[in-house]
Design goal:
Chain lengths: 138, 546
């Protein structure tokens, strides 16, 4: 039913993503799909590395670990954004088309009052993406 | 945005760069959490200390307005008259340093690594750095300064063409006209942009090539080493936040008064606190929208719109005014600037202290106090340029645009004053009585379609404030998040709103003038800081691949 599953990853908060990573691995095995782990970062140095290259390496390491652990095909895709805080939704939406994902599995927070002011990233993607989107509450 | 597939681990994508090996991890001093439903990620001492210090100074200005006014009202002119030689000398060093970098072998070092590609097109990049840097000043001083220097301040002792009785003195006209433009261009040309270029280059180099966080302290790594992660660095960052927020808030307060004066002049809208508070609220609301839309969707778009409108107004004034005279003014102003730049920048033994201390030293302190904000913003959008390209585009091109702007706006205004002084509103508001906020509208009054162009002028003033306010909020947010550019959105909302609130409180309670004087006074310590930065840049460039 699905051939390419996209999993947006926040490398700074991997502890909050275990459920979505597990769900992606289970569904990938069920449908023999490959999983593409997607990160969005800026060009500026961050706690993840001195530049995008180091962040890409971290994402690749995560991909290798998950693929080896769960036995599915894995790839990673890093988007370099001028302003990740505000451009994340657009970056994820464009990446779905770029990598040809047919299912997105994404960790998201429990809804709260701020969702009335600005939508969650998962909610925004589900609203606009043509691919199926599965939101996993953290 | 750029994407990259990575299935086997990739090499550093931007080519070789000399990363500084430090034990510090970005965000290690940050506090991350939730305040109710709002997430936050703030640098522990910098956010809290700068926020509390700002509140304390606002209270001081409100509680003891006379004392604050007296202290800072005295401090600023004392600094610019006592240290005029230092400000002028340092600014000369910055220009020479930038020119040296253009011709030096280090000019080929690329910001972001040897294979980095520019993040923005020339047009988008230039619009952003210009709108953040001095757009609003051009609106305010474009008419005022050329006329004032021609008729009143007498730079380098060039006599005024207007006598005590208000009559034109024909033999003084040509020299005074040229000097009016040259003395203005001097304040808006190479020197201010060299100040911004030094700060921006230092930050871009140490962030994109050395891997340090995008915050002011990073530029001092070659000088202080690992100590910049302690209180030395905290103080530098706190000072930068302090100068940026108060610089923006006080300018916003004065800007609202200027826009209100324009609205009264054109439409008869009452000039009072209520209208000014509404103007600040509107400017802050638009800036908030821009900040929420981000760097590409908000700040860049608004900057480009603003540059487009400003260009239209410039072309209109050029065509509606005495075009041949303006074109001649452009070249004669440029020539007079080239001829006058050495004597005008001479820091010692000057007789024209009114011009040198009251204008030049004041301007240099002002530009320098704004340089952390503008420099950091320019740095953020300049990745991928070579040092040579960076300096040429930040130093030479904006200087030429300023020359053009001053030649057109100042040239038309000077022409109005000299050809028909009795009918010139510019003469009334600049020479006879000093009402600087009306000088632009007075010049436009002498041209066709004055009501329409005045409305465009007011819109430009307001939007230039928005483009300063949104980029300033981004800068403050990044510094107070310890150099993180992806801090939670509510923090940007906080700083943008806080800036508007401080402006309103100071406008209503008094204290705008005192705190603006205080901000300009920070120009003195920052001048020392900038001189150290030149050395840090050289140290940093030496180890880079060319």
């Amino acid at each position: 039913m699905f051939s390419k599953i996209m999993v947006p990853v926040d490398l700074k908060h991997l502890d909050r993503m275990q459920k979505s990573l597990q769900a992606a691995a289970d569904l990938a095995r069920l449908y023999s799909a490959t999983v593409c782990y997607v990160g969005v970062t800026s060009a500026e140095p961050s706690e993840l590395g001195h530049g995008p290259g180091e962040v890409a390496d971290r994402l690749a390491d995560l991909t290798k670990t998950e693929a080896a652990k769960h036995g599915h095909g894995g790839a990673s895709h890093l988007v370099i954004s001028h302003d990740p805080t505000t451009e994340l939704d657009k970056a994820l939406h464009e990446t779905v088309g770029e990598i040809g994902a047919d299912l997105v599995i994404m960790a998201t927070h429990i809804p709260n009052v701020t969702d009335y002011i600005w939508a969650s990233h998962g909610g925004s993607l589900a609203l606009h993406s043509r691919a199926s989107v599965m939101l996993v509450r953290g | 945005m750029a994407g990259q597939d990575n299935t086997q681990g990739i090499p550093v994508p931007e080519g070789s760069a000399d990363i500084i090996d430090t034990d510090y991890t970005i965000g290690q001093d940050n506090i991350e959490g939730q305040l109710g439903p709002f997430g936050f990620d703030i640098h522990n001492p910098v956010f809290i200390v700068s926020g509390l210090t700002i509140v304390a100074f606002v209270f001081y200005a409100l509680a003891l307005p006379d004392q604050a006014g007296a202290v800072f009202g005295w401090l600023r002119p004392w600094l610019t008259s006592t240290f005029d030689w230092f400000f002028l000398g340092a600014a000369n060093v910055f220009v020479l340093f930038c020119l040296f970098l253009i011709v030096s072998p280090w000019g080929s070092v690329r910001l972001g690594g040897k294979e980095a590609a520019p993040d923005y097109s020339y047009m988008g990049w230039f619009a952003m750095l210009f709108a953040a840097g001095m757009g609003i000043g051009l609106m305010f001083f474009g008419v005022l300064e050329p006329v004032y220097h021609m008729a009143i301040s007498e730079p380098l002792g060039v006599p005024s063409p207007i006598g005590e009785d208000g009559a034109i003195i024909p033999e003084n006209v040509e020299a005074a006209r040229k000097m009016g433009l040259a003395a203005t261009i001097y304040h808006w040309g190479l020197h201010p942009w060299a100040i911004y270029a030094v700060v921006a280059l230092a930050l871009a180099l140490f962030t994109f090539n050395k891997g340090l966080p995008l915050t002011i302290r990073s530029a001092f790594y070659p000088i202080f080493g690992e100590a910049i992660w302690g209180w030395v660095g905290h103080v530098i960052d706190i000072l930068a936040v302090f100068a940026t927020l108060f610089g923006l808030a006080t300018s916003l307060g004065f800007g609202a008064q200027q826009a209100n004066a324009g609205l009264e002049h054109v439409f008869g809208i009452p000039n009072n606190i209520t209208v000014q508070v509404l103007l600040i609220t509107a400017i802050t609301a638009v800036a908030l929208g821009s900040v929420l839309r981000g760097l590409d969707g908000g700040v860049k778009v608004l900057s480009e719109i603003n540059m487009g409108i400003a260009a239209l107004l410039l072309v209109f004034v050029l065509l509606a005014g005495p075009t041949a005279t303006i074109v001649a003014d452009f070249f004669s102003g440029l020539g007079a600037y080239a001829a006058g730049i050495l004597p005008l920048s001479n820091p010692v033994g000057r007789a024209d202290t009114g011009y040198m201390q009251g204008w030049t030293a004041f301007y240099w302190a002002w530009w320098i106090s704004w340089s952390p904000f503008v420099g950091m913003f320019i740095a953020r959008v300049s990745r991928g340029r070579t040092v040579r390209e960076f300096i040429i585009c930040v130093l030479i091109i904006p200087s030429l645009v300023c020359v053009l702007w001053m030649a057109v706006f100042g040239g038309v205004a000077i022409d109005q004053v000299l050809t028909n002084p009795a009918a010139s509103s510019v003469k009334t508001y600049v020479i006879d009585s000093y009402v600087p906020e009306l000088s632009l509208f007075a010049m436009l009054e002498g041209l066709p379609l004055a009501t329409i162009t005045s409305v465009i002028g007011i819109i430009l003033v307001v939007v230039f404030f928005v483009t300063s306010s949104d980029s300033g909020s981004l800068v403050i947010d990044t510094i107070t998040a310890g150099g993180k550019v992806d801090a939670p959105l509510p923090q940007r909302v906080f700083w943008c709103t806080f800036e508007g609130a401080v402006a309103i409180v100071l406008l209503v309670g008094g204290g705008l003038g005192a705190l603006q004087a205080m901000v300009i006074s920070t120009g003195l310590p920052f001048t020392v800081v900038l001189l150290l930065m030149c050395w840090a840049i050289l140290r940093g460039l030496m180890s880079e691949a060319r």
